[in-house]
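Session log. Operator J.P. requested a structure for one protein chain; no other inputs attached. Running the standard single-chain path with token output.
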Amino acid sequence: MNVFIGIAALMTLLVVAWLVYPLLRSKHGSGVSADRLNIDIHRDQLKALEVDLARGVISQQDFDSTRDELQLRLLDDTESYEAPQAHDGQSFLTPRRTALAIALLTPILVLGIYLQLGTPAAINPVAPDSVDQQRINQMVDSLAARLKTKPDDPKGWAMLARSYRILGRLDEAKQAFEKAGSYVHTDPDVLLDYATTLGSLAGNKLEGQSAKLIEEALKLSPENPNALMLSGVSAYQRTDYAGAIKQWEKLLSLIDPASPDVQQIQANIDDARVKGKLPADDATKLPPVPAGVAAGGMTPDMINQMVERLANRLKDNPNDYTGWARLANAYKVQGKLDEAAQAFVKTGPLLDTDANMMSQYADLLATRAKGDFKGQPTTLINKALSIDPKQPNALMMAAQAAYQAGNYAKAIGHWEIVLTVLPNGSTDIDQVKAEIAEAKGKMSGPAKP
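Structure written below.
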């Protein structure tokens, strides 16, 4: 605040100095009077008039009348700018007194105008929030005033509605959403804001029209995180716990595993299982392990029991990230893909630093999506390759994703790198070469008969 006052005071002093300097400087002028200037201008105009007469541009009559007009105008001008007579100090407002009055009154006038039109509270460091809130309210009110004069602006009404919702002015938000008309149904984010507004007015209940708006948003954007979350909440409030779990688990597969929201979403899923009175063994029951995976004389039942013991131990040791990784892979082998995805999420920092872990998680998500690498699987693959550009699994999946997208050149590039990292004698070499040949065939097109 002190800095602001100092700068304002300095600027005021500069303005005062600029105003009073002409009044205090020497009275001797430059010798150029207004009369002299007017005479010179008159002479130039008269010469131009004579030239026009000589060239025949104007007639003698026009010349005479215009010349008379110029002379009369010169007479008026020189009389009006007649030098003032000295008053021998008899006038009260002498230049010095005028300068003194300006020097005293200007700062007072400036301060008065600032107090009337400015925002003094803005320089108070203890009240920035109130000033910002006031400015926001002014902006919103300004938008509302503009829309009154231009009501055929659905996008503007939607913007006003969302602003009202943020400010907690829910009734006004609802009215603005209604005035936005059909535009609301073109934007999933606007639909969700409208749904939450109606839900707040209904006592935080996402039912009826709110639920319909959320489902409409999901149709426009099936992987919209906010839509999935709100759809789960709506189902939960209707006691449709299975529906809530379905939406929240899909949300888990889309968001960043390192997001702080992961734990809350997982807690919501666990709570829905409890509220749905799902038996504990139903939530953790492991499907039979194929006999082919049994090794060392272990039967499928023995492997199931081992995995179940690991799951129970991790409940008491949630920070055992390596253990969660082992459990995730075990679930994946058993075909319990949803539980495997939840276990991968709990591997914590490993998903941010371990390229192999990222590629395993990406493979799981793609498997659950029936081989589709779009969305989070691609994000994980790219992140893994940025950490380890020669990670075999990530390269293979990157090649498959590029092949699916029709980018055969990119797929071939990934597979050729894979060939450089596979050990000699690997059984995968022939398969990778076959895929490269197939991609090259796609690029060249069908053979001519």
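Operator note: The radius of gyration is 41 Å.
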